[in-house]
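[job 4471] stage=fold_predict status=RUNNING
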Amino acid sequence: MKWLLAVLSAALVTAGTAVALWMVKAPPVEIVKTAGVAGGAVVALYALWLNDRKHLLEAEKVADERFARSVEMLGNEADQVRVGAMHALVWLANSERRYTQTVLDVLCAYLRRPFHHPSWDGNAADPDTVFTEVSPEIQREQQVRRTAQRLISDLLSWGDKKKEYYDLDLTGAALEYLRLEGRRVNRFIARRAHFYGITEFRRLHVRRTTLFSGATFHGRLSLPEAHFEGGIAFTEVTFEQRVDFRGAKVGTFLALTDPAPPEQRGELEVLEGTAMRTLHEGWALAGSPQPSGPRLENQVEQDDGGRADVVARDGDGLGDGNVPAQPDEVHAVGLDGEGLRDEGDPQPEGHEVKK
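[job 4471] inference complete, writing structure tokens
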């Protein structure tokens, strides 16, 4: 069908060129030659486009095959193969931007796999200071996981680069010395995660919800100049070391926990209009730290399917309490006594419904 269209187009161009030359009384020989060249040019251009399209489809097929092979190699027993697979995925994400979010999801899924290092039992605040006998398999796996953390940081947008925002889901992950300084994140989910060593979120910008529900920060948490634009939840979070709030800001909503961090440096600025259920004592807050604006239970989001949802499912079997809802029949749900499933992204969106 496309070839027929090309032939018809060439015929029309040829005829049009011939008529135009005939009207200016060009010699018959010139009319035939020029019209033929014009029609041939149309066919040639179409052939070039078709060839480029073929190469593009072949390149996409090769990229898909490379992605599948790399993901498969993440299950290899050899640690160097797993590290190579991660680098191959990141290379693919940098070459084909459509893969960036998928590759980040794969790396996050790898970090969500169960893992425990004996050094965490000795000094969870700074595991690298503990020297203990561990099996080579655990030691190598630790290095693979740290590579995954570094590659996640490398993939995220930062500095003067193009401002792109991607989701991170580290639910239940065990993380060591996680560093996301200056990175841009769309939605940051780290429920029930364990952060070992110093966690560095300096100048981190999260555009949507940040959820640390039930997480434990075994080491220091550094948040200088971080901006949690879409709100942050520290519900039932355990802080074992100092938290640095200097220059940090939060908007949309703020959910805190008791007790407050044992040591705090600076103050967390609560932007005007930020929704808070209650004001917890002991937290170093500045700005507008009083419960104000819409209550948290009135903050909902609606997705395209009309589903009431807090965030995407964790994939751990616990779910998020999703319930069906129609776009025009969404009712606010009270949040009292909901445990770790209480914080949604309270920022109203035009296409998401949150419970």
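[job 4471] summary: Residues 164-355 form one domain.
[job 4471] exit 0
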